[in-house]
Design a protein that fits this description.
With 377 residues, the protein is α+β, with helices and mostly antiparallel strands. Helix content is 50%, strand content 18%.
């Protein structure tokens, strides 16, 4: 009877330990999910704050340079000498700085001055020393000076858009041309136009964004437009582009569902969609367990980010979805590892207890047998 009671007690203890383990495992999973949700929400908010700071800096910087005396003077001189270059200044400029440029295509920006004796080339050299340095210091892809009539009278890198017209030329439908028209049509002379990243043909279809504003002289007259071509690299420095499987990942997705950065040095050329992306592009913010664009279960923190506050206001066209996500399996992996370790320990304890009980029972039976044999003798 006593052995039966001991066995029942042991069984009850094992059952209690099992249910306690189940409850602990559930609590540990919930805690891991909660901590991951807080961490991903914080990552999302930090990235959005960094993006806002970067855009604000670019807005401030282009107005600073447009208002600077060197740029204003360079613009005035280049415009005047451009009109004196020939009866067809665009064709002559392309001949001097593209067709007859002695440097290879990747090094055309190192050509400061054509040896044609023109005042345009003299002024080009002065402007080039200033603006080429600006592209290096700030990492801009290119810098443009654009006349009021739409002629691109200067660029740093002399790509195929140089010396074309943004109102009538072959790139009149580009976002560079759209931004130029917006600046010219705006009654606020300090207006800044910022267009989202799209492939730009003159730059081998590299994703490019353009920010533009008017250059205003001392008489409050518009001399032309200053434009910066923005590459994706500053965005990638904020968002990150190298990710390992299972790690936290941040995505910036535009209103066209295209990523605004590379992933592991690869450009994703197809649109990506998920419920979190859809919600963020609609202006919603949240943290939920959702499937990502690959179909994997993730904890996802999502929120909208308005890339351009000026162009057309806060519209869906300018909205990005900022996504911070991590696979649920990766989040729970440490918990599962600890759970397996604990279960192995519990199983060992059960086996040890069973063995100890068996040995004690055998010992007791042996002692009883010995006592019975002594009584017979």
């Amino acid at each position: 009877m006593k052995n039966l009671l001991n066995s029942l007690f042991f069984v009850a203890l094992v059952v209690a330990a099992f249910f306690w383990a189940q409850t602990s495992m559930k609590d540990a999973r919930q805690e891991a999910i909660a901590q991951a949700s807080q961490r991903l929400a914080l990552t999302r908010d930090i990235r959005i704050a960094q993006l806002k700071s970067e855009v604000k800096t670019i807005y401030s910087e282009i107005r600073f340079w447009a208002d600077s005396k060197p740029v204003q003077e360079d613009m005035g001189k280049i415009i005047q000498s451009w009109n004196e270059l020939s009866s067809n200044p665009k064709a002559r400029a392309r001949q001097l700085y593209i067709t007859e440029n002695p440097l290879s295509p990747n090094y055309k920006a190192d050509f400061y001055k054509a040896d044609d004796g023109s005042s345009y080339s003299e002024n080009h050299e002065i402007a080039h020393k200033l603006l080429k340095g600006l592209t290096k210091r700030r990492g801009y892809y290119d810098v443009f000076l654009i006349a009021n009539n739409g002629d691109i009278v200067y660029t740093v890198f002399k790509e195929d858009d140089y010396a074309t017209n943004l109102l009538t030329g072959k790139y009149k439908e580009s976002t560079l041309a759209q931004g130029f028209r917006e600046v010219k049509e705006n009654t606020n002379l300090n207006h800044v136009s910022l267009f989202d990243f799209v492939p730009y043909a003159p730059s081998k279809n590299a994703p490019s964004s353009f920010i533009q504003t008017s250059i205003i002289d001392v008489n409050n007259k518009t001399q032309g437009v200053l434009a910066f071509q923005l590459p994706v690299e500053p965005i990638e420095k904020i968002i990150g582009k190298i990710f390992e499987a299972g790690q936290e990942q941040v995505l910036a997705v535009g209103s066209n569902y295209m990523l605004r950065h590379r992933i592991n040095e690869e450009t994703i050329k197809e649109p990506i969609r998920s419920e979190a992306i859809e919600r963020a592009l609609k202006g919603e913010t949240g943290v939920e367990q959702l499937e990502d664009y690959t179909g994997k279960k993730t904890i996802t923190a999502y929120a909208p980010f308005n890339f351009s506050n000026n162009r057309l206001g806060n519209t869906a066209e300018n909205t990005w979805a900022i996504i911070a996500k991590q696979e649920v399996s990766a989040i729970l992996k440490p918990v599962e590892k600890e759970t397996r370790k604990w279960l192995y320990q519990l199983a060992g304890l059960v086996l040890f207890s069973l063995l100890l009980t068996w040995l004690l029972t055998r010992r007791k039976e042996d002692l009883s047998t010995t006592e019975e044999e002594d009584e017979v003798i």
